[in-house]
Write a structure and sequence with these properties.
323 residues, globular, binds zinc ion, 2 domains
């Protein structure tokens, strides 16, 4: 028994060594291509993979992923990628067919929400049983997604497994700090004003994680139109609860939010636009708000200060652009 165990360890060590040395010969720095659908995923891949891979995000700043149709060049990028990450839970509603085609070609294609979906009661659904895809709004949800990304990169490029594991660990440490910041900041808002009104239902995970009541004019996807009744119901709610601010989103039209402000004014309640939130897309590439941490820091800081709580103007890391 002992001997055979020792032999099998030795064998696997040889096999692993063989695998590693072979990979080291064929894989150079940045020698494989990663394609991600949304920026939030592309950013996590960059944080974890550093210069080991070249990362391309398909859906850019200010673009709505619910409505995004892949272009011919996107399809080519997906086909020539070595590894692909997407959110899943139907966020990329119009990309499903292409992703399935790419996956059946044998390429590693990973939904970063696969671990979340396995933990039964984490995923939020609406009355029609549509999954809410916006899991990045709760930092603990995105920690699970980051772990999936780290594990998948390590499996794809095992020669650098330690590198990916260390980077995943230190990135998750930063996310834990962000999670704490979000919880403390939102808790500083006076209790009756912990209400977040936005253009579409992208913030339910945020609300559940940090203690905010969330109301969106449109549903989980921006595909459906908001009705007049939805808007007049929300106006009454704002007036009744004396909510001081509502929020616009960088990737969704401001039309409905402006109708809310007008409606409340007509009933004698002045509600201001508390700022622009990043719901389904990040800020400009190369800026702090163009990273996942910067995006969430911006949202939490903006919401907290507009609803009467206390958060530093430049946010958790002192890097936000003041407005
Ligand atoms: Zn959305």
């Amino acid at each position: 028994m002992r001997t055979s165990k020792a032999v099998s360890y030795l064998l696997s060590a040889i096999l692993l060594f063989g695998l590693f040395s072979c990979k080291e010969q064929t894989k150079e720095v940045g020698s494989y291509q990663t394609v991600a659908t949304v920026g939030m995923i592309a950013d996590v891949v960059r944080q974890i993979a550093g210069d080991k891979t070249e990362v391309e995000g398909l859906i850019g700043e200010g673009v709505d992923p619910h409505l995004y149709k892949p272009t011919g060049s996107d399809v080519k990028k997906l086909q020539s990628a070595d590894i692909v990450f997407y959110n899943g839970l139907m966020l990329e509603g119009k990309m499903g067919d292409v992703l399935v085609r790419v996956a059946t070609s044998g390429k590693p294609v990973h939904a970063v929400t696969e671990a979340i979906l396995k933990s039964d009661d984490y995923v939020i659904s609406d009355e029609e049983d549509h999954y809410d895809p916006h899991v990045w709004m709760d930092v603990s949800g995105w920690i699970k997604a980051s772990q999936v990304i780290g594990d998948s990169l390590a499996a794809h490029d095992p020669a650098n497994i330690d590198y990916y594991e260390n980077n995943t660990y230190s990135y998750i440490q930063k996310l834990n700090k962000l999670d704490d910041y979000a919880r403390t900041s939102i808790a500083s808002i006076p209790e009756g004003q912990r209400v977040l009104v936005t253009a579409h239902d992208a913030f339910s995970y945020l609300g559940r994680a940090y203690g905010l009541e969330v109301r969106g004019i449109q549903g989980l996807s921006t595909e459906s139109e908001a009705g007049l009744k939805d808007i007049s119901d929300l106006v009454s709610f704002l007036v009744e609860k004396k909510i001081p601010a509502v929020f616009i989103e960088s990737s969704v039209s401001q039309k409905n939010i402006k109708a809310l402000v007008e409606g409340a004014r007509a009933k004698g309640h002045e509600v201001k636009i508390g700022g622009e939130l990043f719901s389904d897309a990040m800020g400009p590439a190369g800026s702090y708000e163009g990273t996942y941490i910067g995006m969430i820091d911006h949202n939490i800081t903006t919401i907290t200060n507009a609803l009467g709580g206390k958060a530093p103007e430049k946010g958790l890391n002192g890097q936000l652009t003041p407005h």
